[in-house]
Amino acid sequence: MFVLDIISSVLLVAGVFFGLSGAIGLFKFPDFFTRVHAASVTDSIAAILIISGLLLQTSFDLNTAKLIFIFFFLMITSPTASHALAKSARHGGLLSMAERKTSDNSNTQENQH
Amino acid sequence: MHIGKWAVLLSVFWCLLSGYFQPLLLAFGLVSVAIVLVVLKRMDDVDQAPKQVRSGHRMFRYTIWLVGQIFSSSAHVTKLVWGNPDKVSPALAKIPVKNIPAGNRVLYANSITLTPGTLSVDLEEDSVTVHALQKSSIEELEQGSMERKITGIWGENK
């Protein structure tokens, strides 16, 4: 199936591109919370694209079902993991950039008074 | 009654994962399904909130819509990754979730995390704290198209 192969390789290459973007964003972004956003690109769209690319490579048998299971479990577990990370960071007292700016401002104002 | 439905669901799941139909392996499958059902029964007795098996058509409709959302917001975040990182202006906000049925709030928080650019940091009684890469994503959430989609499929909170 020539057409399916082409579609599947396009999907796989696009998935690899988004995975790479996520990895680069992980290094480029300034603080913890923004880095989680970059990682979530890899989590969501790269996973979707690569799994659908692989789906087209199967001969629509048990492996197809397994890939669909993997898709659904990834859709449940990866946001849960990101949420757990972010929540524990926040409850541990890590401030995001937006909050740090406002708290810096209030500190300097207090110093001036 | 719902234990029976779980038995069917788990058996189908096991068969799809294994793909072997020799008597020995089928017996192993039966044993593992039975163990899971015993654990399920005991846990239902503890938490008094048995989880019903429902047909997945509502979840299916929602997943298709969500994948579309993921595509559009991923493109946005990818642009930020490759562009100038100074454009990133993170924002935090509390989004009210009063209208969403209690059982679907986790789904809502997970969908927020799953769409790149927004991240649910904390889920409380009637609000979810959201961290966004840009303020515009918060405004988009406040307009509530995702909330309307969930309440449209599962109904509003009474």
Explained architecture:
The complex is a heterodimer of chains A (113) and B (158). Chain A is mainly α. Chain A has one domain. Chain A is built from four helices and no strands. Chain A has helices at 2-28, 32-57, 62-91, 97-112. In chain A, helix 2 packs antiparallel against helix 3 (62-91). Chain A starts with a helix and ends with a helix. Chain B is mainly alpha-helical. Chain B has two domains: 2-47; 57-154, no CATH class. In chain B, 61% of the residues lie in helices and 11% in strands. Chain B has six helices and three strands. In chain B, 25% of the residues are buried. The A-B interface holds A 18, 21-22, 24-25, 28-31, 33-34, 36-38, 40-41, 43-45, 48, 62, 65-66, 69, 75-76, 78-80, 82-83, 86-87, 90-91, 96-99 and B 13, 16-17, 19, 63, 67, 70-71, 74, 77-78, 80-82, 85, 88-92, 109-111, 113-123, 129, 131, 133.
Question: How would a textbook summarize the main sheet of chain A?
Answer: none
The unreliable regions of chain B are none
Number of domains of chain B: 2
Helix amount of chain A, in percent? over 70%
Unreliable spans of chain A: none
As for the number of domains of chain A, it is: 1
* DSSP strand count of chain A: 0
Q: Cα distance, first to last residue of chain A?
A: 75 Å
Number of helices of chain A: 4
- What coarse outline of chain B follows from CA principal-axis ratios? elongated
Looking at how many chains there are and whether they match, the oligomeric state comes to heterodimer
SSE succession of chain B:
HHHEHEEHH
Structural class of chain B: mainly alpha
User: What structural class should be given to the helix and strand makeup of chain A?
Assistant: mainly alpha
Mean of pLDDT of chain B: 84
**Spatial extent as radius of gyration of chain A:** 20 Å
How far apart are the first and last residues' alpha carbons of chain B, in Å? 27 Å
